[in-house]
Amino acid sequence: MCSINGCVDFCLPHTIDKVAVRAAGRALAHRGPDAHGEFFAPSVGFYHNRLAIMDPARGTQPMQATHDGKTYTIIYNGEIYNCAGLRRELLRLGAVFVTDCDTEVVLWSYIFWGEKCPTHLNGIFAFAVYDPARECVFFARDRLGVKPFFYTRLGTKFYFASEVKALFAHPEITPALSREGLWQLLYLSPVTLPGSGVFAGIDELLPAHAGRMTKEGFETWAYWQLEARECRDDAKTAAATVRELFCDAVHRQLNSDVPLAVLLSGGLDSSAITAVAAEHLREHGQTLSTYSFEYEGNRESFRPTLFQPQGDDAYAAQLATELGTAHTVLTAPTEAVAAALPAATLARDLAGQADIDSSLLYFCREIKKRHTVLLSGECSDEIFGGYPWFYRPEMLYRDFFPWLHDPHTRISLFDERITHANEGLEYLREVCRQSTADCPRLSGESAEDETARVATWLSTRYFMTNLLARKDRMSMYSAVEVRVPFADHRILEYVFNVPWRIKFENGVEKALLRRAMEGYLPDRVLWRKKSPYPKTHNPAYEQTVRRMLEARLAKKGSFLAEHLDRHRLQALLDGENETWQGQLMARPQLIAWLCQFSDWFESYHVKLI
Known about the structure:
Largest sheet: 6 strands, antiparallel
Shape: globular
Radius of gyration: 24 Å
Low-confidence stretches: none
């Protein structure tokens, strides 16, 4: 994994600001501390930071290859999991490889297959290729959006980067926030709208999209899309297909030239990855390393809820013993989780998911001491139907995003003259309605199948991309690469079309995945009710973030001090500790989020427009 950034201007050559391109690269050095490289031509400036995973000695970027007298230059961030097969195919076509890196495979894929090259790639990626013969920079992003690609255009110039902060290294790009951006933050965040960089004038290349910048202009397009198709497989066949696809995805993602581990919570998803990975490595004479997370004081303070009925620690430790992994339990101190909130804001370039972000940042920093590559269980719930809105139409069709239990919680704390809350609510309701209408459907399918299909569509386009962004930013801020086996597009393509009666057999969430993993996991894990990413239940954490919020409210002239309604805030602080978004965001997380929001305005010098 790495960072990429660049500037392109084919209409006004020799105007690339090399100092700014290098400054943008330095702003992303945390994503790739192992090596740095740059490339400049009259119309193009590229900069790359490398986190060396494959062929550390020879994989320096920007990387070049010459074919038929033409030289091509690539900067790339990602991992390609069908690399071996592509390499063999490209060799037959005449490719000449000088490294064992997947970067070179992607470059030769462009050389021989041109703008159709992303369709050949199975993996997570964001890259740009300079093709001087065509006076073109081609760029693409993986199908599910695991790797980021932000960009902006000013005049004839095209700027891009792995993270938004790098774009602000260019003096002409400033951090401004429009009403639409503010609405996203106060209604939706950490979820953001597809393609939005939140800041005014900054966009994110959509997942499964590619594009080009030439003298003629700028264009993007979808190279892959999810399709509704008829599936006649029975439950047994569906489970066997999922098992085959999933095991293949895990096996492909175990390839690394640096130490690799798995995040094991003890829940279904991470346990499935661990079981398949441990067996595969054991067959090759290796022992898998695993990590689980805990918080200071959680055992004494934990209270079961609908969303988190039980703790994870006993499940993870027992399963690790049974599977023979080298297991480590990392415990996050309460003060460390709170202290990392500002860094988590900088890592994400937004006020994100409060201590759900900052704790992950803490854990990744600890993991980096021993391991550089991790496998993690994101995307399973969105694909297999692990959330209640998959089977509760009243949640899905209530005219707003179903994971927001109370969309008014945050925005009601702020001055209506700034937020224009009613206008924002209607704007986002229309976005939700249009997104629901865009979902691919089959004519004549049952109401329950359509409900599940729409739930998958919204969950993968919004909720899942937020979780993937969180995992990428927190891990890469610590120079750790995270791979996500469930994000293999082949799994989504297949499961999207499996009938709901199979995915929800006997009223059990994710029954299809559970059936697919029979024989790999003991029943107590296989049929365990979903438990989300762990959070701190220690009352000392809420006390700490309350003090942090008071300090920020005392800053005269700050956004919070000027625009937060103190009476409404106090009523919230005195009220019930209810979850208002997803499964984890309750009152302590709201307080911490307000601290992040204040820090974000101050650190980025955000201006409302």
